[in-house]
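If you are new to this repository, start here. Below is one unmodified record pulled from the training split, so you can see the exact layout before writing a loader.
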Amino acid sequence: MKDLASSLGRLSATMGFARPDTVQLLERHWNALLGPALAGQCRLDAVRGTELVVAVTDPAVAEHLRLSARDLCAAVNAICDGAVVDELTVRVRRELD
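And here is the target side for that same chain:
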């Protein structure tokens, strides 16, 4: 099992994606990162390289996140115990899947 996890980690890094456990960790802490009200309006789309990608349905929420990008990236890095993200991309969508 360790060999599979190691291989997936290397494959993810090669393709520019975060390690799967990083995404899982962020999903578990999503409410703490954003607060319950805001977290309910946002979805973690991906971590690509050092870019955190978040989907929202409301342009006002998107603007709020963009203005809070530095703090959000710092909070993500604190939860992940290291420099994982340094950029935030917010996508406005009609619906969150």
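Two things worth knowing about this chain: Residues 26 and 87 are 15 Å apart (CA to CA). The two ends are 31 Å apart (CA to CA).
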